[in-house]
Write a structure and sequence with these properties.
The complex is a heterodimer.
Chain A (H helix, E strand, L loop, with lengths): L1 H14 L7 H10 L9 E3 L5 H4 L2 H22 L7 H10 L4 H28 L13 H24 L4 H14 L6 H9 L6 H32 L4 H9 L3 E2 L4 E6 L2 E6 L4 E2 L8 E3 H26 L24 H9 L2 E3 L2 E3 L1 H23 L16 H23 L22
Antiparallel strand pairs in A: 1-6, 2-5, 3-4, 7-8
Helix pairs in contact in A: 4-6, 4-12, 5-6, 6-7, 6-12, 7-10, 7-14, 8-9, 13-14, 13-15
Chain B lengths: L1 H11 L4 H30 L12 E3 L9 E5 L4 E6 L2 E6 L10 E13 L2 E10 L6 E2 L5 E3 L8 E6 L6 E8 L6 E2 L1
Antiparallel strand pairs in B: 1-10, 2-3, 3-4, 4-9, 4-11, 5-6, 6-7, 7-8, 9-10
Classes of the chains: A mainly alpha, B alpha+beta.
């Protein structure tokens, strides 16, 4: 019997923070558990709503965790050398037990993470969540910029991973991608040289992309992600909490028991009566453990399930080994860069005898301008406090239209590039048959 | 406490010799840290710029001129089109000037007359790029798609030792270049 008792006690000891039995335990849980300590003690009910945040940030993080776990296992199986990279991927795909599933999950999660982070950014914009509300000391515009940096890191992570299988798809996507870099004025060729560690895509390039992919970029993501989360706390939680607090009517707060240390000893009494708003009150908020934690578990499980199902349905492709002399026709960049590929195709401008390379306009100038615009935006947004943390606030409708316009433009170009471009980058409707192209010269 | 006191003292008489020494040491310390960081980053970064490249040489032999087939030969691993017309030879790069994909030699069904510069020429083939649809005339002049400039022409030479054709990818030449043997 004592055995059972001990086991029960031990189980309780290990799990009480996730399932606290009282208000006091709920408060202690957050402080006493390393994994929970970065959550607030209490959280407003609105912040937990499914429809406000759509939990896209959480989804992105869960995808990142799946990527780290599957990625570490893949690291044991993959050899980053031009002689063996392709065959080790082939082994992972066809020989290793569950290797295909690991690779497929890694790939699907990467694609989904790009999408989730992008949608998260759209959500933050449309709810005006990059704006400071009433919380003192908040700096949400800074966190928006950190978010943009995380988005770029996500793209770079996906892009560096693209080369590793060393197949035709990988080789030509990276050829196109790195040549865009070399279109930058003055330093372009040098940047490409540094990226590739040479002038051709070879062993130097592979090991560079590998190290960036498995160590440097993930570390940057972890660093910036922790700062991102820390800032959310410093900024007073989700923007919707600011909206809640500012829309509440001040009311008399119940006096709280207090102790005062005076010269004569401890004086027991109650605090002064105040009329104020308290978002921490019971009717507005709940304990993070278990309510927030429970929802995070639900989101995590659903994300994992989606990844699993999609990985089984959409198997990761593996084309012929990389061949620098044969360009597949059409040769496409990863889908999230196809709007750029579309842009570099249509933006070559001729002014008399002078030609401006589309790679410079569409591949460098336009994306840089968009990036600058995104960073600058929260500082020019002068809408009032009432449009913080609200979907489609009337005051911000003009901005929202512009933003949605830009996003639609990118999405439409992505769709055209992905589904409607065939050999020689000619336009084909999905029901049109592509002409067969000779693979060799 | 001592620290606080000395700080107060320093603040009250900022020009004392003691504070000069202190600020000097601060500058030396901060400077030292910054210099170490800068040096550390520089050496880390510089080590990633290769001093030796184990890439294929820019200048290489491709066999005796007489052994080359008439018309066009594609050197796959160097992405180079080598042409032989009677006794003259020339070489055009197969790398698209837009984003570096390999352009495809495309034979035309019937010869077409085109105006390149101010000259009228009859061409029987073109180069088409599979990536973004750039098109080039037979001499490499770009006429459609995003490619900003013509395909590169490279110098051909005859090796003095064994008379083989030598391609020099390090030296670009004009479109009227012909090596006559």
């Amino acid at each position: 019997m004592p055995m059972v008792e001990t086991t029960k006690k031990l189980y309780k000891r290990l799990t009480w923070t996730w399932n606290p039995g009282s208000e006091k335990e709920a408060g202690d849980a957050i402080v006493k558990n390393l994994l929970l300590h970065w959550f607030p003690n209490k959280i407003s009910k609105e912040s937990l709503s499914w429809s406000y945040s759509l939990w896209l940030g959480t989804i992105s993080f869960v995808l990142f965790i799946i990527l780290v776990v599957t990625g570490v296992v893949l690291m044991f199986l993959y050899v980053p050398s031009v002689e063996r990279a392709y065959s080790s991927i082939k082994d992972i795909e066809f020989v290793v037990s569950f290797g295909w599933l690991l690779r497929s999950m890694h790939r699907i999660s990467a694609h989904l993470m790009v999408a989730a982070v992008f949608l998260h950014m759209i959500r933050v914009f449309l709810t005006g969540a990059y704006k400071n509300g009433i919380a003192v000391g908040s700096n949400r515009p800074l966190n928006w910029i950190i978010g943009i940096a995380l988005f770029i890191l996500t793209l770079l992570l996906s892009f560096t991973g693209y080369l590793l299988p060393w197949d035709q798809l990988a080789f030509w996507a990276i050829t196109v991608g790195t040549n865009i870099a070399s279109a930058a004025p003055v330093v372009g060729d040098w940047i490409r040289f540094v990226l590739l560690g040479g002038s051709t895509i070879d062993q130097n390039a592979l090991i560079r992309f590998y190290v960036l992919h498995v160590f440097f970029l993930p570390m940057m993501v972890l660093l910036l992600f922790s700062y991102h989360m820390w800032r959310v706390r410093k900024d007073g939680g989700l923007a919707v909490a600011d909206k809640e607090a500012s829309s509440m009517k001040p009311e008399a707060q119940k006096p709280v028991k207090s102790k005062t240390y005076s010269l004569l000893g401890i004086t027991n009494g109650t605090s002064v009566h105040v009329r104020t708003v308290s978002i921490d009150e019971e009717k507005n908020s709940v304990a993070s453990s278990p309510h927030l934690i429970r929802r995070i578990w639900i989101v995590s499980l659903l994300t994992f399930l989606s990844v699993l199902i999609l990985s089984v349905i959409f198997r990761a492709p593996l084309e012929a080994p990389a061949n620098p002399s044969v360009t597949p026709n059409p040769a496409k960049a990863p889908w999230y860069f196809l709007w750029l590929q579309e842009l570099v195709t249509i933006t070559t401008v001729k002014l008399g005898s002078f030609t401006i390379n589309g790679a410079l306009v569409g591949g460098i100038l336009l994306p840089t301008a968009l990036l600058g615009l995104a960073i600058w935006w929260p500082y020019r947004d002068r809408s009032g406090v009432n449009s913080v943390g609200v979907w489609f606030a009337r005051e911000r409708s003009g901005q929202n239209y512009v933003f949605i316009g830009i996003c639609l433009f990118i999405i439409v170009l992505t769709i055209v590039g992905t589904f409607l471009r065939g050999p020689y980058w000619n336009f084909y409707w999905p029901w049109e048959q592509w002409p067969t192209m000779p693979v060799k010269f | 406490m001592k620290l606080l006191e000395s700080l107060k003292a320093q603040l009250s008489k900022p020009n004392s010799t003691k504070s000069d020494r202190r600020s000097f040491l601060q500058i030396v310390g901060t400077g030292g840290v910054l210099a170490s960081l800068a040096g550390f980053f520089y050496q880390s970064f510089r080590s990633l710029l290769p001093n030796v490249l184990y890439e294929a040489p820019q200048k290489f032999k491709i066999g005796l001129p007489s052994q080359l087939a008439d018309g066009v030969t594609f050197l796959e691993d160097r992405r180079l089109y080598v042409f032989k017309e009677a006794k003259s030879y020339y070489a055009i790069s197969g790398a698209c000037t837009h984003l570096g994909c390999t352009v495809k030699y495309t034979k035309l069904n019937s010869p077409k007359q085109v105006e390149i510069g101010n000259e009228k020429k009859n061409i029987t083939f073109e180069f088409h790029c599979p990536c973004h649809g750039s098109k080039f005339y037979a001499d490499g002049t770009n006429y459609a798609g995003p490619a900003p400039s013509p395909l590169h022409w490279y110098k051909l030479e005859i090796a003095p030792d064994d008379g083989q054709l030598v391609v020099n990818l390090g030296e670009e030449v004009e479109q009227n270049f012909r090596l006559t043997v």
